[in-house]
Amino acid sequence: MLGSAALLLAFAGLGTPWARRHRAAMGAPIRSIAVLPLDNLSGDAGQDYLAAGMTDELTTMLAKNSNLRVVSRTSVMQYKGAHQPLPEIARELGVDGILEGSVERTGDKVHMTVQLIQAPSDSHVWAESYDRNANDLVTLPSDAAKTIAKKLNASVAQPAAARFVNPEAHDAVLRGMYFWYALKNDESGEYFKKATKLQPDYAMGWAALSMYYGAGAAGNSLDPRTSLGPEEEAAKKAVELDNSLAEAHHALGAAYYFNDWNWESAQREIDRAIELDPNFAEPTTSAPRYC
Q1: Boundaries of domain holding 233
Q2: pLDDT per position in the chain (291 positions), as tens?
């Protein structure tokens, strides 16, 4: 009798405003997402660059492989190491979903775990673990992003097959970008140069190298007379190698703006970068880094 009464009360509760809101939250589609900084569980601070790089690439690949609104790295990095409830972070960022996880590297083996949280209900939607060889990391963010987009019914038409990327060149760019965001331009430049030497047809390596030259000239660590020319040349090389790379057009737009004062061409390249990736909002060689 008591059990029946409890059951009736439970069913009655399903009609309360709270219950209706809870059911609505549980079933609400995820149309926007933020990728929180992945934790480095390697026990080696030297692998922080890898966790940061995988976070950035997951963000980029989600933007490219889905019709989700993806919050930029710049907005999300403030939550690195934060201990706030995920629904609270989601409200502050204005998103429906949160992607969080970790990366662990042991020797030449990399283990990455990611989980998707439906923010309003703080409930798990999807989780997956990936084990890859360190030389097979280039496609990992893209594979994860495609799976997430499919899970959320947010997939978009896929572009042409991905270009080959030398694993060592890819690693050099990840390391360089880690220093870049830490405002250590000299260190970043060494890795960007290494990437282009390891793979001369790696567009992202040339785009990053252009960023290095431009930021160095603006920050007075490089002589503008000998660095602005290479900045523009590297950006043009990146666009020539991969016309679909938003970072390449962004770098070229910055070069036109600060090197040639060519406003029209600069605007055209920036518009092209936005067209290719509407979620692209990184400070690369844009005004904030130059001021």
Answers
A1: 167-290
A2: 444 444 333 434 444 443 434 444 446 889 999 999 999 999 999 999 999 999 999 999 998 889 999 998 889 999 998 889 999 999 999 999 999 999 999 999 999 999 999 998 999 999 999 999 988 999 999 999 999 999 999 988 766 667 899 999 999 999 999 999 999 999 999 999 999 999 999 999 999 999 999 999 998 899 999 999 999 999 999 999 999 999 999 999 999 988 878 889 999 999 999 888 887 765 544 333 432
Q: Looking at the domain assignment, is residue 14 inside a domain?
A: no
216 domain residue, yes or no: yes
pTM: 0.84
Same domain, 77 and 184: no
Give the CA distances from residue 68 to residues 40, 71, 73, 74, 199, in Å, rounded to whole numbers and listed in that order.
Answer: 26, 9, 15, 17, 32
